[in-house]
Amino acid sequence: MTNSQNHQKELAADRFSLKVTARLSEGANALPRDTTERLRAARVRAIASRKPMQVNNPTFVAGSGVAGAVLSGGRRSAWWGRLAATLPLLALLMGLIIIDAIQGDERAKDLAEIDAAILTDDLPPTAYADPGFAHFLKLNISRTP
Fold it and tell me: What is the pLDDT of residues 49-101, one digit of tens each?
């Protein structure tokens, strides 16, 4: 049933109970004193023995399949809920570590290629540190078609 149908049924039950209590209250003044005392004692016993109102604990389903079942709430699954919440964080952290390692390897390969090019070139490595050589390279790059 939908919530609106349940709500309408609850409202109808409340209206009925108000009508019944109003009718009972009308006749209560005409009852003898010992009968009203017995009714009062019965009312006190009924209130004392009534069941506590049941609270609905809404469940939060954040996913489907295993993740949704794990996050369904309850005392027993609190540990599983925490674990399911930390798993994506751990996966993200591992992904970042792997990406950093791959980029570090690529940087090392690039530096090794540059070092190999410098060492196998005809020019001595000290020529690359000379500021005049850097100017010479810039002029040659701009002259080449």
Answer: 877 766 666 555 555 555 454 445 555 677 888 888 899 999 999 999 999 99
Q: What are the DSSP calls for 87-145, one per residue?
A: HHHHHHHHHHHHHHHHHHHHHHHHHHHHHHHHHHSSS-HHHHH-HHHHHHHHHHHHH--
Q: How many residues does the chain have?
A: 145
Written as six digits, the tokens of 1 are: 């049933």
Average pLDDT, the chain: 78
- CA–chain centroid gap for 24, Å, is 52
CA-to-CA separations, 25 to 18, 21, 30, 69, in angstroms, rounded: 10, 6, 10, 51
**Higher pLDDT, residue 87 or 130:** 87
- Encode burial over 78-111: b for 16+ CB neighbours within 10 A, e otherwise: eebbeebeeeeeeeeeeeeeeeeeeeeeeeeeee
Most confident stretch, 1-5, 72-76, 117-121: 117-121
Q: Count of CB atoms within 10 A of residue 70's CB?
A: 19
Q: Are 70 and 81 in contact (CB under 8 A)?
A: yes
